[in-house]
């Protein structure tokens, strides 16, 4: 992986984390900021500047044949995409959704379309398990942008803020996180297993892939049920959760025969990060499964602590856990400084999740806010950009 690409992605992640700290600081002491604008900047920088670009770099590293033409093409596209992200970093906190920020967001979408086209053209490998996962991920990335294109007409029609407006936003978020991002990291993970001669059971892989695809589609009925009270939607979500359970069971059967081998292939740091990502996956599925209960499904978007906690569990736990493991595996973050940074990141992330979900449970039972909640959440959050700054410094110093 190109060192300059990784440093760029980590800097984007650092900036997103700093915006997150400011958002939490605003609850402790007043700040002269537009909270909604800064929140847009935080989410776009984290999703597109960190996760998207890291998956871009990993897909190029692991799936694309390296020729002078492909190296030049993907390098140029990377920096054009980064230019669009810089534009969003600067414009969203200042103006929210407006002409400039929408322009940079549109540029990013067109860059992603071209990236999909180039991967389709350049990856000439046979239909391996990892390639099936990769192209499923790219499909969901393209599919999710339908929500973005619908956003403008819905807002222009005077429907901004109503059920249809929120639905198209949830459409984009759902298929980005549960589709493109999740299938993307799983494609890279399976690729690394097979590179290390871990042969996968083809039947178990089919039971893993296809139910997960249908589960991703069907579980969109949950956010739909928040805005449209059709009685069939919870049943569709329940079917999706059952399929997801079958898929994860098959995933366990896929990797279980290779567990002992994997523990010897990877360093302790890398193995810890993989374990962290897989535990986050189990927790994510467990929490999703609780929406089978109507009372939980009803409050799953009403209690903000649950929303933020679950979003961060997916983005920082599952997806970022895998991304950091891939980085550790590829570039051997084995210095004392990098190990300390990764440990600090994991501890602070776990602390923020515990605080968020604890307060969510208290809110659910109408017990109020526990003492120093916002201050504790702020203090735990400060460790995230600090850890990323240490990782960036360690990487810059490395050969």
Can you characterise this structure?
The chain is an all-alpha fold and about 400 residues long. Helix content is about 85%, strand content about 0%. It is built from 15 helices and no strands. The protein has helices at about 5-25, 35-65, 70-95, 100-120, 130-160, 165-195, 200-220, 220-225, 230-255, 260-265, 270-290, 295-300, 305-330, 335-365, 375-395. The protein is globular.
Question: Main traits of this protein?
Answer:
399 residues; mainly alpha; globular
Helix and strand topology:
Layout: H1 3-25, H2 35-63, H3 68-95, H4 99-122, H5 129-159, H6 163-195, H7 202-218, H8 221-227, H9 232-255, H10 259-265, H11 268-289, H12 294-299, H13 304-331, H14 336-364, H15 373-397
Helix pairs in contact: 1-2, 1-15, 2-3, 2-6, 2-13, 3-4, 4-5, 5-6, 6-13, 7-9, 8-9, 11-13, 13-14, 14-15
Structure at a glance:
This protein has helices spanning about 5-25, 35-65, 70-95, 100-120, 130-160, 165-195, 200-220, 220-225, 230-255, 260-265, 270-290, 295-300, 305-330, 335-365, 375-395. With about 400 residues, it is mainly α.
Total strands: 0
**What global shape is seen?**
globular
H/E element order? HHHHHHHHHHHHHHH
Rg calculated over all Cα atoms: 21 Å
Category by helix and strand content: mainly alpha
Give the mean pLDDT. Answer: 91
Main β-sheet description: none
- Output the number of helix runs: 15
**Unreliable parts:** none
What level of helicity do the residues show?
A: over 70%
Strand content: under 5%
State the distance separating the first and last CA atoms.
13 Å
What would you call the quaternary organization? Answer: single chain
